[in-house]
Predict the 3D structure of the following.
Amino acid sequence: NYTIRGIGGIGSLGTGGGPGVVAYFAEDPSTASGPGLLFDLQSVQVLKGPQGTLFGRNTTGGAVLLDPVKPGFERDGYIEGTIGNFSRRGGRGAVTLPLRDTLSLRLAGQFDQRDGFVTDINTGRDYNDRNNYSLRAGLLFQPNDRISSYTAVNYVDIDEHGPGTVLLAVNPAGPAAGLLTPLLTAQQARGNDRIALSANTRNVNRTLLALNNTTFRLTDAITLKNVVSYTRNRGDFASDGDASTLVINDLNGALPGQWNANSETWTEELQARFELGRLTFQTGVFYSDTSTPEPLTFVQRTNLGAVSLVQDSAHANDTSKAIYGQLTYKLTDTLTANAGYRYTWDEFGGDISIYIPQFANACGTNPGFAFPNCSRAFDGESDGDTWQLGLDWQPSPDTLIYGVTRHGYKSGGINPSVLLVSATSPLFRVRPETVTDGEIGLKHDWSASGINARTNISAFYMKYEDIQRSDYALIGGFNTQLITNAAEATVKGFEFEGVIQPFDALTLTATYSYNDASYDKYIDGLGVDRSGFPFQYVPKNKYSLDAKLFLPVPSTMGDVSLRASYGWQDDQQVSSDLQPFGIIPAYGLLNLRADWDHIGGSDVGLSVYATNVTDEEYRVTSNATYNTTGLVGAAFGDPRMYGATLRYSW
């Protein structure tokens, strides 16, 4: 999941909510994250703030645009292999095959394998491993200078053991403190790279994406574009929520031969662009439909193994429809105004069936029902608008000063888990969340005495309302996990990006961001006042420094460069309340790399790399449930990694 300026995604299929940040692959709002898509790319763009008036889906936080390398009409390609510690081995490759003057094919693929750096002392199973591969085919058809049609198929296969969750704390007043405390003592003695779990954790995923992006320039002033896609996703995920050998909260994955993530998505978007002198206008319609072709299932064991929850069937569906438009008008040769509007209609729902075999086949915790007639149906709908108003002033070709205000909407939702406990709880439905922001910025390129530089500076202020948050609430006597609405929050910050070339061989880059995100009003599901509490996973300060130097070697040797990158981030709140290990301490990571390209004038290149050179131990996430289930578990980031890559290109 992506988070931009403190706003990210929450919710799941059939329950509404949707992503706060949408990722695109070749202009298709697909599941563009994780392994299998981040290779053979020609560009990556990050759009900050509410989006949706110009293209695609509506968002409250922003968008990430991944654009794959398109086939050209000359043969080219590359192949590379990587080896490293932890038995790292990987490979990537791509080739462009012109078929005719108007038709070209590009084939690409990658695989990545690595042993995990956390080991189970009882089973020898390794966690935080890598084992994935992906294949991609892209076909470009350009019969003339007015029509361009790109078709792509991307398949990703992941079969990994998942993160090695480490037990960090036990609440002495928790329900299993007496049993967990000696296990915590043993874990602390072993260190964070050797653990003992009870669940057979795994991360298995298969994703197929097929899309077509066709542009048709009707006249010099009118252009039509159509983007259609189909995505099929299946997954089987299992985790050990208590990070111990006890069976307190173990998700054991799907029933045999089935999946606990199973969806297919169709999207269709038709755009029209009009260029009329000083006025440019773009409008479109968007449609997305996601459903579960097969039942979603899982088995979860809880309460020291005395109780099993079996979801024997669930179906879900999401539909989103929208119409949008944005115009840009040049008031003068240097001053441009823009305005956009979008309206979105969302529908969501499904059915769910959960039973407890140990309690005479009771259906969930809802009395009066018995398995197999456990199914409960749910549905909801939501709608809202998105808008944008802005001014761009470009006093010179090297300078842009801008100001913009935007309003974003994210769908409301449903808590199916509440329905299983109480059909009348007001927490069953979740309100839509909205954000209204203002942003000013300066982008400027500098050049003096042979020194080139670029600086981008921006400041933003956001009012965030009815924020959807993962929470707990006491419903029918049960502590139930659900999504609730935080009343409102203020998010404000400052961002800087700078690049300077003191001389041609040296490039220095620096970034800095300040993000102050905290709740103005928030009473959580358990009645606790969290007003003034910071957002989760939003460090207040972050910066990065990067230096790349080309060495003065003879041209007959090739190109040799050295690169060092350092990134640091502040403390970040990870728990939703005050508790031990509720904050990830600040940390910084140093990466080094050396590249030798065009070795001896050839098309061969060699790279050696090291990441996390100082072997920093740092947490990346936490299962911070000290005040609910009585424990805290966490996953740690990669230790020092090093290796080498050999590449041949043509």
